[in-house]
Write a structure and sequence with these properties.
The chain is an all-alpha fold. The protein contains ten helices and no strands. The relative contact order is 0.12.
Length: 281
């Protein structure tokens, strides 16, 4: 009687191709691209155009600037523009409309800190300076385009109501007026980035805009402080816009005021970049 032979060990079946360990030639099916500023710009553009605060603030800005500008323009005569540009009706609307740009500039950055979404933003883009740079570029572009179109539209509308040439060309006032209020908005964005609190940053910017117009009246009561009050009044936002729109050609075209604002804004932006890199989220 023969002894039964033990069963031969069977070799393990080869793993299917989809279970095989990846070799040196493995390529991920997910496309991997190197991020750059363009991606951050696209992200910030998507944010700013999809939130309600942008529509409300820009809508209010257009309503104030264009609405008030048209109302003022229809009540003017040809004699009113013998030495001032046709864009002067936009001046009154901008005095109120600039507050909308200040608010939007703060909300562009501070709203993410308030909701905590800034953590998601910095996780997706660890280069924090790139995020802030994209916010500044997108906001400035939007603010400048909206402001320039509003002022230009009022200039064209006013020119259509009156015949004759004006002694003051109004093309430069469109450029400088839009640049002034846009730089105020950029300054607000930088302050919002440093303070990270919407209410505090908006209050600070309102003080920056309004106090130089109010304090000179009290400072000039004193002979000692009169010089300071006069200089503060000269560079206040209201006086600066008045010079930009050539309400008094003898007082200049607002170039010095625009230069000062650009310098202050540049310092604030640099400070915002430095603090952004040094502080935690």
């Amino acid at each position: 009687m023969s002894t039964p032979q033990p069963p031969m060990p069977q070799q393990a079946a080869a793993a299917p191709a989809w279970q095989a360990a990846p070799g040196t030639s493995y390529t991920s099916p997910i496309p991997v691209t190197r991020t750059h500023l363009g991606h951050a710009l696209n992200s910030e553009w998507t944010k700013i155009k999809s939130v309600r605060s942008t529509m409300w603030t820009l809508g209010t800005f257009l309503l104030l600037v264009i609405g008030i500008g048209f109302l003022v323009a229809v009540q003017t005569t040809n004699e009113d523009f013998t030495d001032v540009p046709f864009t002067v009706p936009a001046f009154i609307g901008l005095l109120l409309g600039q507050i909308c740009l200040l608010t939007l500039g703060v909300l562009v950055v501070s709203s993410e800190y308030g909701t905590g979404m800034i953590r998601t933003t910095f996780t997706a883009s660890p280069q924090r300076h790139r995020v802030l740079a994209a916010k500044l570029i997108i906001f400035f572009t939007v603010a400048y385009v909206v402001s320039a179109l509003s002022i230009g539209l009022i200039g064209l509308f006013t020119a259509s109501l009156h015949s004759g040439d004006t002694h003051a060309p109004w093309g430069a006032t469109v450029f400088m007026g839009a640049l002034y209020v846009s730089l105020l908005g950029v300054l607000s964005l930088a302050v919002g980035s440093m303070m990270r609190h919407s209410a505090g940053a908006i209050t600070t910017m309102l003080g920056v805009v309004l106090l130089p117009s109010i304090l000179p009246a009290f400072l000039m009561m004193s002979d000692t402080l009169r010089t300071i009050g006069e200089k503060m009044q000269e560079y206040a936002a209201i006086s600066s816009l008045a010079k930009v729109f050539r309400l008094n050609s003898e007082q200049g075209n607002g170039g010095a005021q625009l230069g000062l604002l650009a310098g202050v804004t540049a310092v604030a932006v640099v400070a915002a970049f430095v603090l952004l890199e040094r502080r935690d989220v």
